[in-house]
Design goal:
Layout: E1 14-18, H1 23-30, E2 37-41, E3 53-57, H2 62-71, E4 76-80, H3 95-108, H4 112-125, E5 129-130, H5 133-136, H6 157-172, E6 178-182, E7 185-189, H7 195-202, E8 219-222, E9 236-237, H8 239-247, E10 252-256, E11 261-262, H9 265-274, E12 278-282
Parallel strand pairs: 1-2, 1-4, 2-3, 4-5, 8-10, 9-11, 10-12
Antiparallel strand pairs: 6-7, 6-8
Length: 287
């Protein structure tokens, strides 16, 4: 039997295209009994996959990746983990990768989501079904009753609402998924640097405009981009996110129900309580 929340019966064999971070490893571990095949993306994957059938490939070897997945018996693929935009000149492009370059360059000028859609469409054209991480492991997706010590009113309510609003407006412009608000002041928004770098910047701000571990203030909101390819790039938090928020003095985190991923959920909940922080799950139409 596969782990609870893993839907291994939907495919003959799952292929995981692993970028950086814990998400692809958590998915592989959840599906371990059904023997997933992992393609580790060279220069991006940063976890140990030696316990799984795997092969390291360049992100530019599109044809090679498809060939390896088919040879392994995979009929479905899941893109997981973060991938920094590569320098085309430094990629080891195979024939299929070279063919994709003009489309990828044109899409990249429109934003990350357009680029992701080109990659997804390419794998679908090769005969693969593409599924999201939340489909592979439904337990990762938060529900409305899945918050931790979540405030429904009080001093953080307005910060939650404003942080969600800012994150959604940034997402609508395909800029980023995250925003931090403290006492009504927008402290940071996420762009290409990613959530971790954004949170690290907060520590350099004056303590009087942000929270401290002794007197917490402020909320990180991570919201999905309205146009985004939800099978690939849902907002994700994990233990590292919580620890960085805690160091920055934030009081809590806000996610959208069914439109985010929580890694290491039990560890996240323990850390939130240990730091006297909250996690609130909002509805999609909450302002």
């Amino acid at each position: 039997m596969a782990s609870e929340g893993a839907h291994s019966q939907r495919w003959q064999r799952l292929g995981i295209l692993a970028g950086g971070g814990d998400l692809p490893l958590e998915l592989a571990q959840a599906c371990q009994d059904s023997a997933p095949f992992v393609v580790t993306l060279n220069g991006h994957a940063d976890r140990d996959y030696t316990a799984f059938d795997h092969q390291d490939m360049s992100i530019g070897q599109i044809g090679g990746i498809a060939k390896v997945l088919k040879a392994a018996g995979c009929d479905t693929v899941c893109f997981a983990g973060y991938v920094q935009r590569p320098d085309i000149k430094s990629l080891k492009l195979d024939t299929r990768g070279l063919i994709m370059v003009p489309k990828a360059l044109a899409a990249g000028r429109k934003g990350d989501d357009a680029l992701i859609r080109v990659v997804v469409k390419e794998f679908e054209s090769q005969g693969f079904a593409v599924v999201g991480a939340d489909e592979v492991l439904s337990a990762l997706a938060p529900t409305l009753n899945g918050g931790v010590d979540a405030p429904h009113d009080g001093p953080h309510r307005d910060d939650i609402a404003k942080a969600c609003e800012i994150a959604r407006k940034m997402g609508a412009l395909d800029i980023g998924q995250g925003a931090v608000v403290a006492d009504g002041l927008v402290l940071a928004v996420e762009a290409q640097e990613g959530t971790n770098a954004m949170l690290d910047r907060l520590v350099s701000l004056r303590a009087e405009i942000r929270g401290t571990p002794e007197q917490r203030c402020g909320v990180l909101a991570k919201m999905p981009k309205p146009m985004q390819e939800r099978r690939v790039d849902l907002p994700t938090i994990g233990l590292d996110t919580v620890e960085r928020c805690a160091t920055a003095g934030l009081a809590g985190i806000a996610l959208e129900a069914g439109s985010a991923l929580i890694l290491e959920r039990e560890a996240v909940e323990r850390a939130l309580r240990a730091h006297n922080m909250f996690l609130v799950i909002v509805e999609a139409d909450d302002a």
